[in-house]
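Protocol step 4 of 5: obtain the predicted structure for the target chain.
Materials: sequence only (see below). No template structures provided, no constraints applied. The aim of this step is simply to have a reference model before the mutagenesis design in step 5. Sequence pasted as it appears in the construct record:
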Amino acid sequence: MPTFVEDWTDQYGQKSDVAGMHYLAVALGSTVGGQVGARVLNTKNEGKEWRNRNS
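Step 4 output (structure tokens):
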């Protein structure tokens, strides 16, 4: 990630302060992905617990 801003400035010609804002997109994507993944796994594991208790 240290060259993330350099990629945007060199390849796409953006200013470094604008290119630095792309870190927000990475942070937001990681947060949303983690939250969604956790909820999916919780739902999946609740179903397994219910099946184990009722078998």
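Step 4 remarks: The mean pLDDT is 86. The chain has one domain: 4-53.
Proceed to step 5.
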